[in-house]
Specification:
Blueprint lengths: L1 H6 L2 H4 L5 H28 L4 H6 L3 H9 L6 E3 L2 H16 L5 H21 L11 H24 L8 H10 L5 H27 L4 H9 L1 H15 L27 H32 L6 H16 L7 E3 H9 L6 H16 L9 H13 L5 H9 L1 H17 L1 H21 L3 E6 L6 E3 L11 E6 L8 H13 L6 E5 L8 H16 L3 E5 L3 H8 L3 H4 L4 E2 L2 H9 L17
Parallel strand pairs: 5-6, 6-7, 7-8
Antiparallel strand pairs: 1-2, 3-4, 3-5
Helix pairs in contact: 3-12, 3-15, 3-16, 3-17, 5-14, 5-16, 6-7, 6-13, 7-13, 7-14, 8-9, 8-17, 8-19, 8-20, 10-11, 10-12, 10-17, 13-15, 18-19, 19-20, 21-22
Length: 584
């Protein structure tokens, strides 16, 4: 039972479920449902899917995540960035005549779900750590700008979309005339939603309304915009005035089934499915960890892969498109007091009721309203000031972030995230292959040794001490060789080089060979090679090799002992013993 509970967390928290928890989850579900209905419709449009697909993406996937997910507040469903990636992946497949858009989206969800589950079974949750935050932030910022720009055409009545910024601009400039009625509806909804998001709650609380009621009304603003513009559409027959409407939405629940798949379609969608899996997982885990930390809870990244994988598999068999955890909805779910993933299941029930009974009303909904909803939602993702913050902290991270933004805007989301992933990995490899190192000297009156470039220290002309702040492996072995060669070449009169190893946790076979080569070259130059402060596990491995037998110098327990023995430093106190006691 305990083993089964590991794979299905519901068996753990479900045993402690009580009436109070049920009430809290139900209240949170009502609030999130109100928020999710217009978002589901809007993100379906963004993904290039019929509006009902957005509702379907908010039913069965939420139930699946409630069964397998570990976060108690993560709100799974359609999100802006993944919807844009879906549209970018589906369009070329449809253009090539491989299948229709809905089938392609379902296959994409199934493939993404299968990849996530496989990663979960293989315990690959740690892979999320290889995507740097600046790269993810840059990708999300660029995606937000691209999404918002792509929706402007709908506000003017000229049609929208576009997978790159040049394509969006071209579509806007080549479009026909502006539809005044569409502009009135679209920009009116945009102003109202912006006001509701930024000003409505303070206004209501200032008028004496309770904070809870004000929050609910604020969250319900998109629903108000939907029903208000539907009423205007019907009252003024906006469809006859050239305003683009959502059109007929079939009422009912999704019909379960597998789409028709062939190998050509799988091969065409595989790269996009993998990128969607990675981006969705990173976004979801980041949100889940942030909110879990506020309650001193924890989530399991590997099990989150299983939960998100199950959600996407559920989307694939229920006529939907890929889903993941959304930041804004999850924060609302958290603030509303959700206690368990059951809140997501209750939200699914609310969306199912909407699909059954509200669908006929949506035919008269202007597409400009959904575009306004998307723009207001995604602009909160844009964080351009982060560029300045990252620039001040790290030029390398800034370059990676800026490159991700430029490539995403110029060449599309798949190219952007691919470049971001590649840059993240390259940064990791570059930093690991160029470890920080420093020539050190003794701080006067102490047994401490610090960087000679940062501190007033005592050195000895015949002894050079180099501290390396990284484990030694094949990626940085050559760097260490070149560093020591350069130091030896510019230090006449040098008799000893001490490699200080307090931060060296491992030495692989390639690095061991490099150390042996360094020792041999220094011997030829009349310089003895020593080690100091070698950690116990590393020392154990050195003893199992023949390196120590050929070492020209000694292995010292501490750097101070090395300097006492080799350099007779001032105020030096002999501590005795060397290699034999250096296994600490």
């Amino acid at each position: 039972m305990k083993r089964l509970g590991h794979w299905m967390p519901i068996l753990d928290w479900g045993r402690r479920y009580d009436r109070a928890t049920f009430s809290a989850d139900l209240l949170a579900a009502v609030i999130v449902t109100i928020m999710l209905i217009p978002q589901s419709l809007a993100y379906a449009m963004l993904a290039g899917m019929p509006p009902e697909a957005g509702l379907y993406a908010s039913i069965l996937p939420l139930v699946a995540y409630a069964l397998f997910g570990t976060s108690r507040v993560l709100a799974v469903g359609p999100v802006a960035v993944v919807s844009l990636m879906t549209a970018s992946a589906v369009a070329p497949v449809v253009l090539a005549g491989l299948t229709d858009a809905m089938t392609a989206a379902m296959v994409l969800a199934l493939m993404s779900g299968a990849m996530l589950v496989a990663m979960g079974l293989l315990r690959l949750g740690f892979l999320a750590n290889f995507l740097s935050h600046p790269v993810i932030s840059g990708f999300i910022t660029a995606s937000g700008l691209l999404i918002a720009a792509g929706q402007l055409g709908y506000l003017f009545g000229a049609g929208g979309g576009g997978s790159t910024l040049p394509a969006v601009i071209s579509r806007l400039t080549d479009a026909g005339g502006i539809n005044p009625a569409t502009c009135a509806i679209g920009f009116g909804a945009l102003v109202f939603l912006w006001f509701a998001r930024s000003r409505l709650k303070p206004l209501l609380t200032g008028l004496g309304m309770g904070a809870g009621a004000a929050s609910v009304i604020t969250r319900a603003a998109p629903v108000m915009a939907v029903f208000a513009t539907i009423a205007l559409s019907k009252g003024f027959d906006l469809g006859a005035r050239g305003v683009a409407l959502v059109g007929q939405v079939p009422a009912g629940l999704p019909v379960l089934g597998l789409p028709q798949v062939d190998m050509a379609l799988i091969l065409a969608l595989a790269p996009a499915a993998f990128l969607i899996s990675i981006v969705g997982f990173v976004e979801s885990v980041s949100v889940a960890r942030t909110l879990a930390a506020r309650r001193r809870e924890r989530i399991g990244p590997d099990q989150e892969l299983m939960g998100l994988g199950a959600a996407n598999l559920a989307a694939g068999i229920s006529g939907a498109f890929p889903v993941t955890g959304g930041f804004a909805r999850s924060v609302v779910n958290f603030d509303a007091g959700a206690q368990t993933p059951a809140a997501g299941a209750f939200t699914a029930i609310g969306i199912a009721l909407a699909a059954l009974f509200l669908a006929p009303l949506l035919a008269a909904l202007p597409q400009a309203t959904l575009a306004a909803t998307i723009i207001v939602a995604v602009l909160s993702l844009v964080d351009l000031p982060a560029l300045a913050r990252v620039w001040a902290w790290s030029r390398h991270d800034f370059a990676a972030m800026l490159a991700t933004i430029i490539v995403t805007l110029g060449f599309g989301v798949e190219a952007g995230i691919s470049v971001g992933v590649a840059l993240s990995i390259l940064l990791v490899l570059w930093r690991a292959s160029h470890p920080h190192s420093a020539v050190v000297g003794q701080v006067p009156g102490t047994e401490h040794y610090r960087n000679i470039s940062r501190h007033q220290v005592i050195t000895h002309p015949a002894v050079l001490s180099l501290r390396v702040d990284e484990s030694l492996w094949f990626g940085n072995a050559r760097f260490l060789e070149e560093k020591i060669e350069a130091l030896a070449a510019c230090s006449p009169g040098l008799k000893h080089i001490v490699l200080m190893c307090p931060a060296v946790n491992d030495i692989d076979a390639s690095a061991l060979e490099s150390l042996a080569d360094i020792n041999s070259r220094l011997v030829d130059a009349g310089i003895r090679f020593h080690l100091s402060e070698v950690k116990g596990p590393v020392m154990d491995r050195l003893r199992r090799s023949d390196f120590l037998a050929g070492l020209s110098g000694e292995v010292f327990l501490s750097q101070h002992e090395a300097m006492c023995r080799l350099g007779q430093m001032p105020e030096c106190r002999e501590t005795g013993g060397a290699e034999g006691r250096a296994a600490g």
